[in-house]
Amino acid sequence: MIDHAHDLESVHGATERLLTAAAAMDNAAVTKSSRLPDWSRGHVLAHLSRNADALVNVLRGRPMYPSAEARDADIERDAPRPIDVQLADLRASAARFDEAGAAPADWSRTVELRNGVTDSASRVPFRRWAEVELHHVDLGIGYELEDLSEEFTQREINFLTERFQGHPDVPALVIEEDDGRRIPTGGHGDPALVVTGRPADLLGWLAGRRDGSVLTVHGGTLPSLPPL
Questions:
Q1: Distance (Å, rounded) from C-alpha 181 to C-alpha 176?
Q2: What digits encode the pLDDT tens for the residues 81-133?
Q3: What residue spans of 34-180 are helical by DSSP H?
């Protein structure tokens, strides 16, 4: 059972950590490259602000973005802004998301996200939590996958393995964590591969943040995963 109220509180806490850490940057630091290809730190901050507003749209039954082109254009428009403007926007958009999350609603309803993807409204807060936590890491300002809570790390691993379940471009495999937990994912059929490692390293590989070189693979070679 998904506890959306708990996840909304977790989003708030993660956002506060991000705002505090980002406040240490100056205008020059915001223009530096993030860990995401072709994106500056300003791109990451702009995306987080616009994503908060997009998820407000989702919760209120509107299209997440007007179009993919509009989403990209908004990020490009907002990326060059100075740090004080970025932080003010991130704080204000987070408050709008908090407000939408606090409104009385049927959290069991189905909502539509990008590219026709549907999900339970109750999982939208967790999706926002993942955006904030992973993009905090992407800023490259001292927050690493190892700093993520055990709860978040495990839930995001579960979420991503579910996302890759039955995917035609991912071979059938089993994710085995260092505590012995085994999670099947990938294509159909009997898994031929077993991928083992620390939770942070498994999450990094599944989320496209690490190349998986420190993971151990039994039964073949580590497959390339499609982008999220």
A1: 6
A2: 999 999 999 999 999 999 999 999 999 999 999 999 999 999 999 999 999 99
A3: 41-59, 68-78, 83-102, 124-138, 150-164
C-alpha span between 167 and 162 (Å, rounded): 10
- Alpha-carbon span 106 to 24, nearest angstrom: 39
CA 17, 35, 148: angle at the middle one, nearest 5?
A: 35
Sorted by sequence, the CB contacts under 8 Å of residue 50 that are 6+ apart come out as 71, 74, 75, 78, 93
Contact yes or no for 154/199 (Cβ under 8 A) = yes
Task: Judge whether 86 and 135 are in contact, CB under 8 Å.
Answer: no
Helix (H, G, I), strand (E, B) or coil at 122: helix
Give 119's strand partners: 111
Report the predicted TM-score, pTM, of the whole model to 2 decimal places: 0.97
- DSSP annotation of 222 reads P
Q: Please, which residues have CB within 8 angstroms of residue 203's CB and are 6 or more apart in sequence?
A: 145, 148, 153, 156, 157, 160, 209
Cα–Cα distance, 4 to 107 (Å, whole number):
8
Structure tokens, 109: 């309803």
Q: Is the Cβ–Cβ distance between 111 and 118 less than 8 Å?
A: yes
DSSP annotation string for 183-225 = EEESSSSS--EEEEE-HHHHHHHHTTSS--TTSEEESS-PPPP
At 105, which amino acid appears?
A
Residue 17, SS3 per DSSP: helix
Tokens, residue 69: 């082109």
For 169-203, what is each residue's pLDDT tens digit?
999 999 998 888 899 999 988 888 999 999 999 99
